[in-house]
## 1
Amino acid sequence: MKRLLTILALSAVCVGAWAKGYTLTSPDGHISLSVQTGKTFTYSVMRDGIPLLDPSPLGLTLADGTVWGPGSKFNKAVRRSVDAACEAPVFKRSTVRDHFNELTLKAKGFDVVFRAYDDGIAWRFVPAKPISVKSDETSFVFPEDWNAFIPYVNQHTKTLEDQFFSSQETHYTVNTISEWNKERIAFPPMTVCAAEGIKLCITESDLLDYPGMYFYNGDGDKKLETRYARVPATYAAEDGDTFQRLITSRKDVIAENTVALPWRVVIVAKEDKELTQSDFVWRLATPSAVSDLSWLKPGKVAWDWWNGWNLYGVDFEAGINTQTYKYYIDFASAKGIEYIVMDEGWAKNTVLNMKETRPEIDLPELVRYGKERGVGIVLWTIARLFDDQMEELCAQYSAMGIKGWKIDFMDHDDQKMVQFYKRAAETSARYHMFVDFHGAYKPTGLYRTYPNVLNFEGVYGLENMKWGAPLDQVAYDCTIPFTRLVAGPADYTQGAMRNARKDNYRSVGDEPMSQGTRCHQLAEYVIFDAPLSMLCDSPSNYLREPECTAWIAAIPTTWDETVALDGKIGEYVVMARRKGATWYVGAITNWEARDLELDLSFLPAGTKVQIVADGVNAHRAARDYKMYEKVLDGQPVKIHLAPGGGWALSCEISEP
């Protein structure tokens, strides 16, 4: 017994010798990150002494049973500080400041890197050689039972694992962490309403070779655990009818042979509006792997599918045919719109053969016709087929003159699908083609690593107004700038010319409408990031609305500067953007009418501005708007937003 006690005592001394705490503070000193090593491996976060995350476990269990984090002996701690300016050619600002303090803890076979920024913290595991991961114990322990805007997976299945089949399109449920639905997982970004009005937006960045992160709370406490899809092992035999590649079995690991684990991100905002201008995810992503971007041209695109190819006032039958697409090209050319997209239906067989077009489509003629008129063509495809024929399709259609891909129906973010995203981006870039990922998970920084990736869906966009029971879309519009859009651009596809009040909206598949006012739609072009920004409605409808169409056509899709002006999650948002010497300001509200005073002192007194605002009867007829000019006098600008309304301003100044 004496010998056993001696051994236990020596063990305690040894453990005490390598258990240690570390503290890392943000450059401005407001945010502090504490890390505790030893038998446990935890991190905690405070802002100005306010606890935001209590000690939260971190760790990995490898396929061979090795555990990283808890019980690991860290033999060295390395600190550094960085303050750099990074060029961002296709983004919400042209230059991004990357300013952080960093702590790297070194152990045998791996490092753990922690960073503290003025607006949040991040960490990642860095293996010394490829590893296979059985489980990831990342978690978030909150000091209080706070409310959260939770994007549950919109997939009602018997098991949690089945929910990993998801396109991450859903509205938000607002409740406390302890009230979590134990039958559901949720995906990032998720925004938590912390103490003193602080908001925490939790997500991930630099996801290149690892499954996407999901949240789960099965215990009804204040702790969120994470869940991950396991690596697919087998797929269903293809029968020619499925858009997705369906997984029939999975391996016993979540990642295999990887050295690229993502950053875990906790963005900290003292005010709600700070989230709307965040570039946190972009900062942490791997810098551009594409050396020459001279060929890349973001812009706007006329979309066919949402409006059902519905044209009127023409002397041919509209549909998926050459005449219809020439009409779309003529419309785009006349209005200065850079692209049209040819969505589902142009190919001979959607799931089997995209190397040939259907008989009604003369694609080489459309490319020639568009080139003469300065309009490029984007082709829709499904991920399953594109993955099988990626090199051949890119070679064939880039040689023809096609400018980019809209790749759809991924609906997974397991490791193999994440690898597909990177492979599709890299291959398309080699052929000077850009990519819009539809049916996609949320962005995680790939748009920095491959700037030819212009858009991601992963959003409950306007396409959902075509079907189903009506949900509160205008409240959703006022939520995503503080949640989903924090991660990156979204293929939301705004621009509806048929607009509805809350009480007269209905879903219509062939002639769809939007919820909220006309100006709500126009202002979304300012507020929603989308380097490839779609005009969802019919060219025939736009031609009947020349003022609104001209306003949309003129707006940039990438920016030199983005400034958050005001906002409250789920209620309203006001943002300003600059491209060169031109400023835009946009505001939208939920179904509550709202009067605001905007501080536009960054615009010189005497500046002439063009304003588009809800009309006096927009609460009755949602399409009612007015467009007028005004000279700023240096005083705050008073605006009125109708229920579900919007407001926007544009102007040029002499010195940007």
## 2
Amino acid sequence: MKFKIVYDKPGRIRFRCGGGVFDKTLESAVHKLALTNSCVISAEVHCENGGILVYYKKGHREEVIKTVSQINPKELAPIENGGGVRKIDTDFKSDICRLIVKRFVSKAILPVSIGNLIVIAKGLKYICRAVNTLGEGRLNVDVLDGASVAACLAQKNYTTAGTIMFMLSVSALLEDYTKAKTKAALTDSLAVKTDKVWLVTDKTDVLIPMKDLKSGDIIRIRTGSVIPVDGEVTEGEAYVNEASMTGEPLNVMKSQGATVFAGTVVEEGSIAVRVRELSGNTKIQKIIELIDNSENLKASVQSRAENLADSIVPFSFLGFGLTLLLTRNVTKAVSILMVDYSCAIKLSTPISVISAIREAADHDITVKGGKYLEEFALADSVVFDKTGTLTNAEPVLERVISFGDYTEDETLKIAACLEEHFPHSVARAIVKGASDKGIDHIEEHAEVQYIVAHGIATELHNERAVVGSRHFVSEDEGVTITEEQQTEIDEKSGACSVVYLAIGGKLAGALCISDPPRAEAKEAVARLKKAGIKNIIMLTGDSLKAAEITAEKLGITEYRAQVLPEDKHSYVEKLKADGRRVIMVGDGINDAPALAAANVSVAMSDASDVARETADITLRSSNLSELAVLRTLSERLMERINRNYRFIVGFNSALLISGLAGIITPSMSAFLHNASTMAICAKSMTTLIDKSKKEK
């Protein structure tokens, strides 16, 4: 695409392609393509002048220019329901402008008598809605609105009635806008984002783009991968984690003829699935229904706000009745109806929550619902998995120790041949170690079996070969490891993790893997302590010596070594039973049970699909320091909500007293009440943390 750069500053660049290059229907497609570059933070697209404004990570200017230049408008297709949050923002701005212009233009050009008739007609709608609500046995804000409008019309105070209805229209528009943004943000954070799939053909499996997949195609999904479609299993068996759909953490066995759903994860096994519905028609719709019909993703503070809001309404009517009875002054009594605590409470709280979720996304943190921010703010304990979480996701093979008839190269060759089938960081280290030594590892074994969190087993030259932890090789497989062998391993391994290889029931060798801590891990731990997290615990399947050295480097005083996945889960449950509120941070398939058990769970960006789907929060930048940022963000969110409560109660109480004293009219009371509601909602949309000045 040809363009002219009309604005160019570090982190922000504006392209001008000219009017007519692409139309309104293609704006969303251009926007989506611009965001395909991982360096792009956000983008704005306008068809009128072909404008593309891109905010990007500093230092990546040339990559952004290349991305935009490669966009070909002739190859673009409209995206159904495209635009997401950006379109919602645009529509809201145009709707609010239209409402304001319509009110003031009509007041300026219409005769008073016609204007009054229009006010009466509009007022009847509010009154009818109030009557219908009462008929259903409910006493809520709709009844309050209808009563206040009816009281003004009864007094022939059309100006006040018109002002009240205008402010109510603005409030309703703001509420719809908030709900739409909530849906869009949560739907986007939970949507299946699979780029490529393995298509099953007559000859072999072929990797194709997800966009080329059609209903009726058959795809293969293996251990640790997310299922991107709704469909039916045609071949194979697998345990599938359906927590993202059902909330149930237990795995479900799926075999031929069983139905699987988009967004669920294959924890163990391999299956071929015939596509029934593509992900755009399945999981996203499920999420929308969940948000519409369930309280599951709401913060409890948000639910309490809504319940409190409705419970206040009867007291407004009680105040109206008592004021009318004691003063016989309709104007003062109507002033009571004009002031509604519930409107501001019900609107400001969800706006605060969804704004915080959006702000978290700006810090490369995906939060799947408001309740997880609340739990993060209240947590007093963090449990870290070690490998791939506190340490680098790229461990290194340091040493190979061989036993029996096997040489070091033979031991490494066999281990690499088995491990290359599974995308685990330790497996990658072994495979890379063999590659660096120029060792070829052509397959000479039968199909491998992955035993979650333990190791790998197969048949090699008619003998059972296993590779994995000491517990797996020695206790589960019954391989004898002599005291002399273990002493040699302990002396040569140092602080390294050890992977054992046994063939034919005998120990063939050990592979020593070093996994240095992430560069930011020590700082992240210190910042979490400073943020009020009292208990920071590390769990690892490594040896006690390796765990002790890592914990000392990072300033962690509590740790558990040689921990199995079920032990991690049990440990988290024990902490909760002791009254702790627990954050679990992990990255692997073996962390999924503990992630599901915690009050709130966090997965790294390079975590397995199982971990990311199970976790409530994902760090997209793989920077552990973002945990401290999220802690600050969540705590400030709770402070904001509580501060909003205090302001709403104080300000509206002042309006009530002023109305009763005759200081302000019902019209002024309605204006100040609704203006304060919109002001506090606008304030609730502002950022909680300045991204350019992240907390130190």
